């Protein structure tokens, strides 16, 4: 899935949170998994982020740059960072589920230009801070 927002919760233990629709296939898979990865993408991944935001698109293909950890967890090799961990808490709010995950491993990559989502579109945010489409 493509999360429009991932937030840091705590440094010790390293913890992040995000939300997803409870009825989505992503929620079923993610909430049933022992391990998860949160891949922080950059501007090079705009098309991949769009693809993962659409229901039913083919995902986790080798052409997209995925590799698998020994336990089968997918990580995006070109991501700015891949955060590997497990769900510690969930909170159901309406149709959404807020997921809190403790991060146990960080795989650092090339930061690249930032990718932001604004007004229903992805935009590249270069180092100078001036957004481009």
Automatic annotation (TrEMBL):
Keyword Amino-acid biosynthesis listed: no
Any GO BP annotation: pyrimidine nucleobase catabolic process
Taxonomy, superkingdom: Bacteria
Write the record's keywords in alphabetical order, separated by commas.
Answer: Oxidoreductase
The Flavin reductase like domain extends over: 1-124
Alphabetical list of InterPro entries matching this protein: Flavin_Rdtase-like_dom, NADH-dep_flavin_reductase, Split_barrel_FMN-bd
GO MF annotations, alphabetized: FMN binding; riboflavin reductase (NADPH) activity
What is this protein's record name? NADH-FMN oxidoreductase RutF, flavin reductase (DIM6/NTAB) family
The species this protein was found in: Brevibacterium jeotgali
